[in-house]
Design brief:
It is a single chain. The protein is mainly α. It has 3 domains: about 190 residues, Up-down Bundle (Growth Hormone, Chain: A), CATH 1.20.1250.20; about 50 residues; about 200 residues, MFS general substrate transporter like domains (Growth Hormone, Chain: A, Up-down Bundle), CATH 1.20.1250.20. Helices cover about 75% and strands about 0% of the residues. Helix 11 packs antiparallel against helix 15, helix 11 packs antiparallel against helix 17 and helix 13 packs across helix 15.
Length: about 500
């Protein structure tokens, strides 16, 4: 049993290194959007290249995050976490030195692969290291400090873009990694599925027993094989579909065959997962109607969020004339509201049930996006931008905590970590598809972000589309979500600040 106490020097070192690690990924998810217009100008990149700058990272992260969590169980959670930190930093360095858009996109894909090791690994170390009496508080502190990192991201990113330049948005990760990795090696104890430290990953020992990766139990070496084929097919399907959507406006002859290949890869992924004895994403977990329903709501909600945060940072700079710092700061209230109120929202949902919050939340977010239609040339922050951002933030507060709680409550407690990992991956996949599809749906040309009138017109249509998707999510929630059974698993991450995905939760606590 893990026995590190939070108040001990080692406990504080563990908390510091996990916060630093998760903050690297959270910062990256919020700062890059603010830098996109300047990246396009400096690298002479078209809109498709900017889409790929966001989506290359999301494709590998969403496709590999489930596998990344299980690698720590097999080979050591500290080892995999440190590898993720170093990998992420090396890819960030390559991003910062990229001479052209092609190299930047490739580096972003590598960065996402590092993030797939790093993101679940930070929570895994906390779950595996701390004494059970301190674990809940440690997770809460990790989640809260990580949320602060997410909140600082847009402000810091804007300051860097306007100051030393957009490359420092990526180079910033290097000194963070140089601080994080040595602390982890020196102060964090190693653990894996054989050590008896349970509940320490997106796919923990109990989740694997339930069919995630094959049978293994604490104290016994895991047997079976990783579902590398499933992970590869999932990532390939996302990459091919994303390529088809992004390149479709150019009329390339390859778009049709690539789209068909992407759908075929998706079908192959489902077939492989159904037939493998040790699937990465066990199909039987979707036998829970509540789990399936809340993931459909997740797809709608995070597709809209992904599209909004990709386009709004550009809209504020290209059309409204804001600086990068001004654009980043303008969107800050959404994260601040989530940090301040998400815990109370979760408590309210526990009393009244998740159905109403998961219905009202998306509707509030839809209203916030429709209010963004007021943001045009010379938009005033207090009268045009802030009302939209506040309404959107209140909607996110209303739905994110109940969403996570409903996911965890919809499956057996032994599969809570797996359920959270699937839900997190679904949210990221929805966001990347939205970033790829919205310019196509709204008629944005390759040079749209260089023309304020053209981008403004397409942005208005995009906000209407996002609002419509959120309304669909609200209707789904009202029609399908029900109150969980008493005594079900409740989230440990009470405070959450990320706008790109719901919080990850570990498995059963030992």
């Amino acid at each position: 049993m893990p026995d590190v106490r939070l108040a001990s020097p080692q406990g504080r070192w563990i908390l510091l290194t996990t916060v630093l690690g998760s903050s690297m990924a959270l910062l990256d998810s919020t700062v890059v959007n603010v830098a996109l217009p300047r990246i396009g100008q400096d690298l002479d990149a078209d809109l498709a290249a900017l889409q790929w700058t966001v989506n290359a990272y999301m494709v590998t992260l969403a496709g590999l995050i489930l596998l990344g969590g299980s690698l720590g169980d097999r080979y050591g959670r500290r080892k995999v976490f440190v590898i993720g930190v170093v990998w992420f930093a090396a890819a960030s360095l390559l991003c910062g030195l990229a001479p052209n858009a092609g190299v930047l996109v490739a580096a972003r894909a590598l960065q996402g692969a590092g993030g797939a090791l790093l993101t679940p690994g930070s929570l895994a170390l906390i779950q595996a290291s701390f004494h059970p009496d301190d674990r809940g508080r440690a997770v809460g502190l990790w989640s809260g400090f990580g949320g602060i990192g997410a909140a600082v991201g847009p402000f810091l990113g804007g300051w860097l873009v306007d100051g030393p330049g957009w490359r420092w948005v990526f180079l910033l990760n290097v000194p963070l990694a140089l601080l994080c990795a040595p602390i982890a090696v020196r102060h964090v104890p190693e653990s894996d599925a054989r050590s008896g430290a349970r509940g320490a990953g997106v796919l923990d020992a109990e989740a694997v027993d339930a069919g995630a990766l094959g049978a293994k139990t604490p104290g016994r070496a895991p047997r079976g094989h990783f579902d590398v084929l499933g992970a590869a097919l999932g990532a390939l399907a996302l990459a091919l579909v994303t390529y088809a959507l992004i390149e479709a406006p150019g009329g390339s002859l390859f778009v049709g065959p690539v789209a068909v290949a992407g759908v075929a890869a998706g079908v192959a992924f489902v077939v492989v997962e159904r037939r493998r004895p040790e699937p990465m994403m066990p199909p039987d977990i979707f036998a829970s109607r509540q789990f399936t329903a809340v993931n459909l709501v997740t797809l709608c909600v995070y597709a809209a969020f992904g599209g909004f945060f990709f386009l709004s940072a550009v809209q504020l700079q290209v059309v409204a004339g804001y600086s990068a710092l001004g654009a980043g700061t303008a969107l800050l209230p959404t994260t601040v509201l989530m940090l301040l109120l998400s815990a109370r929202s979760g408590e309210l949902a526990e009393r009244i049930g998740p159905r109403l919050p998961l219905t009202v939340g998306p509707l509030l977010c839809a209203a916030g996006m429709l209010l963004m239609l007021r943001v045009g040339e010379d938009a005033r922050y207090l009268t045009d931008v802030l009302p939209a951002v506040l309404v959107l933030g209140l909607g996110m507060v209303s739905l994110v905590a109940p969403l996570t709680a409903t996911v965890l409550a919809s499956v057996d407690v032994s599969r809570a970590g797996l359920a959270s990992g699937i839900n997190n991956a679904a949210a990221r996949a929805a966001g990347l598809v939205a970033v790829a599809a919205l310019p196509l749906v709204t008629g944005m040309g390759p040079e749209a972000y260089r023309s304020a009138p053209a981008f403004d017109h397409a942005f208005d249509r995009a906000m209407a589309v996002c609002a419509g998707v959120l309304v669909v999510g609200a209707v789904l929630a009202w029609a399908t979500v029900r109150r969980p059974a008493p005594g079900c698993r409740k989230p440990e991450c009470r405070r959450h600040g990320s706008v790109v995905a719901p919080p990850l939760e570990g498995g059963r606590r030992g």
